[in-house]
Write a structure and sequence with these properties.
heterodimer, A: 0% strand, globular, B: ten-stranded mixed beta sheet, 3 helices, 17% helix, 39% strand
Chain lengths: 86, 157
């Protein structure tokens, strides 16, 4: 499961890096609003918009609320992408 | 000069100033309503009734300026009320123009329509003290515009 999630995790790290304006090397699965200073509520909305555009999907309010770290975002996306491809 | 009146949530205050169209107001975030409302009203050629409404649900205090030109939307000043307020980060970046608000017949219909355009529901419908308990919802568009929807009637019907 972890190996399947790695590509999405890498992609999410890249999106977070772009949206939050921080170097990719500073972004990992544990990155969150607590570790990235520019990750405020507006940046979080920009991040959700970027994710929806990249993966061409719509996230539910519950999924948006649950996306509180890069790892959580990748896990939710992995689940959605795999369920939509079945 | 006396201090502006702060209206508590329990007063079930209902805004009497209602614009003619559906463009209800422009929201502007300030550090202090008391220190900025009068001069901003002068600059906008607007009236201010000095009523400041505390909305604990939104963790803000708001007041409204009414343009002396017929048909203009209202101008809402928003100041933080506490640490856990959604406008604090915006204010720390300088504050200023924050959102626009449209009055809609049905929040659910408006949210469904704009969600289909790719916008996000930033905050789900919730009663707002500033509008006498009428529900509001917040939307963030792909173009990074923050929109507040205000339901026209109290019961949503």
């Amino acid at each position: 499961m972890a190996s399947e999630q790695q590509p999405i995790l890498d992609e999410v790290c890249g999106i977070v890096s772009d949206v939050m304006a921080v170097p990719t090397a500073q972004v990992n699965a544990q990155s969150s609003p607590k570790t990235i200073g520019t990750w405020d509520s507006t940046a979080h909305l920009n991040l959700i918009l970027a994710i929806e555009e990249k993966y061409n999907l719509q996230l539910s309010p519950e999924e948006m609320d649950a996306m509180q770290s890069v790892g959580q975002i990748a896990a939710i996306l992995e689940q959605k992408v795999s369920s939509s491809s079945r | 000069m006396s201090a502006p009146e702060t209206i508590p949530a329990s007063d079930n205050y209902r805004l009497n100033w209602t614009p003619a169209g559906s463009f209800h107001h422009v929201g502007f975030v300030v550090a202090s309503i008391a220190q900025s409302a009068r001069s901003l009203a002068d600059a906008l050629d607007a009236d201010w009734d000095e009523q400041i409404i505390h909305d604990p649900n939104q963790a803000v205090r708001v007041t409204f300026l009414r343009s002396r030109r017929a048909g203009d939307p209202l101008f809402e000043l928003v100041e933080p009320a506490g640490e856990n307020t959604p406008v604090l980060a915006f204010l720390e970046q300088g504050g200023g123009l924050h959102h626009i608000c449209y009055e809609v017949e049905s929040l659910e219909a408006a949210l469904t329509r704009i969600r289909a355009c790719g916008a996000l529901i930033a905050r789900q419908p919730k009663p707002a003290v500033a509008f006498g308990g009428r529900r509001i919802a917040w939307v963030y568009t792909k173009q990074k515009l923050l929109i507040e929807y205000l339901e026209r009637s109290l019961d949503g019907k």
